[in-house]
Amino acid sequence: MALMRCCLVLVIVLRLTVHAWSQDVVDSAATAGTDTTIIVDERLVQAAIHFDDGNKFFQQENWSAAVDQYRKSLSFNDQNPKIHYNLGVALLNSGDYSGALLSLDNALNLKPEYAEALAMKGNALYRSGRSDEALQMFENALTADPTCAKAYLGLGSVYLETNRNEQAAEALRRSIKLDSKCQPAFTSLAETLINLNQFESAIDAADEAIALSSKEWNPYYLKALAANKINRPKDALEAAKLCLKYKANYVPAFFEMGIAYETLGQKNKAVDHFKKCLADKIWRPGAEFHLKLLKKK
Hints:
Blueprint: H1 2-6, H2 34-59, H3 63-76, H4 81-93, H5 97-110, H6 115-127, H7 131-144, H8 149-161, H9 165-178, H10 183-195, H11 199-212, H12 217-229, H13 233-246, H14 251-263, H15 267-275, H16 284-296
């Protein structure tokens, strides 16, 4: 039962702050003649316009529109690795992993030591189920830039998935030290600390994640799970209810509410919440176990 409750689905939502457009300067254009200079500048201007439009759609999480604008930007300037990088991230967020890898490779062909692109390629590999390759790519990113927070976040994700929890905790703490505003790092750290039975610290990490983004459901669930582990049912109930506010009908949250009500001696409410888990084949055995216990009380 404890193993089932701790085998959590890692949800890595890498929130990227897209940097402002930085227009490349073609050194040879200044001496290439008036007509050529006008043509080069106009193409860069058009590239910048579409890049900026892509960034606006990116911030709105309108991935298809962002992809369209980044591709238009590249049609005017395909020598800027930043455009390829942003296109790759938008494709990754839209679920097009092969397209993302191609765009990130284009960025890396132009700038081989591009640490963020190496880390994002690692993320694309990880989300494609290629964890070993992802691990190597995150390490490559750290070789290029030892202060790349995204690379440490990626390492932590792979270590967490492969049950190397001590290593995961170390990598995630390094990511947080470099970027204290990275909500996914705190969320993953909370999950890692639960796996290490460090429940108080897990609650602290979940609270940090919630403070950074109060509308994400998973930190609330992790807090509920950790709170139940250390016999804090009221905290568990509050967190589970908030989880359900942002992820309706989430069965694991119903299960934690059942545990909390059972601890509080509120039998009927516990029964009601465990019954909500019976339709889920993963959570049904645990729910049935607790329902049998409650029936004897």
